[in-house]
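Bug: token stream looks shifted between consecutive jobs. Job 1:
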Amino acid sequence: MCNNVKLENIFHKYKNNDFLIKEDGSVTSYFEFWIVAKEIAMILLSIGLKEGDFLLLKIENSGDYLKLYIACMLTGIIACPIDPDLPKERYETILNEIKPRYIIDNIQKINDIEINDTLDNVSVNNDENRNCIMLFTSGTTGKPKGIVHSVMSLLSSAKSFAQLSGINTKTIVYHHFPMFYMAGIFNMFLCPMVSGGKVVLGKRFSAEQMLSFWDTPMKYGVNNLTLTPTMAISLVRIYRHDEKIMTYIQNIGSIVSTGSYLHGTAFTEFQSKFSIPLQSCYGVTE
């Protein structure tokens, strides 16, 4: 584990750098992201949430989703992100288990709350030891469990992983994973964030967009790409030779595989098709 990483210092250090890039080309700097994240933190406090309260997030990917994570880091409110398409029975089980103080099922709920003068007396806390996110395990080996992470555990781990994997200010990450999923929080958001890198916000990976999957990474020069083994095999099997795509993939150097165990067949098929290896990086929610 590396030395402590201060949240505010990250955004101060890289304040003039571009941070989030949307598919339409609009860009948010570190400074702009930080200001809005602090505003969201104050909004959460103003509606009665406090440190230790559970905030259920049942929303689709967006830049504001990521700002909510930083807002929870600043306040100690515990974000509980879940799949918005969860079956009703599983969703109700989660509600009964964690009894969230507040539910955001549409990001517009937060955007519609106006910041007013009463927030002048509301302050956020920079205690890195406070808890901020709870993720549920997959349940493949038993009943899903809620795993709580602190600000420091997430930021320090992200810093260590970024250093080991060469993520830095020149890194451009493609975010196409669900933001309720650990890789969508850790690999594609926090790791580039602590390193001053850029994040290109793409559409969530799906069968519908596989044929055009490479378009956005190529357009924005993405040089850090992560896939699950299933995604990798899917891309292999629908790929038809395209010199531009092949040249782009060769320039990336390597692609990370995470989310589940990388079987030898998946590794071999991907390397055979694209002449580039998958780097196995299987993490767990815990």
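Job 2, same session, no restart:
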Amino acid sequence: LMANTPLSLDIMFVNSDSTIVRIHQNTTPFSNRSLASDAPAIFVVETNAGYALSHGLTEGMKIRF
């Protein structure tokens, strides 16, 4: 939920193997919509909106944080 978030985000769900399994890009500020992964994930990485696109991040890529 983005109910208390005043800016748009990219939200990335990451599994235990550090693989991005779902990216929600440019989420809607103050939204009550639930954002799901569709695949097992243990981490959620939130960045400013547009980050995933501008850095070439796609589902299936591995990340390090």
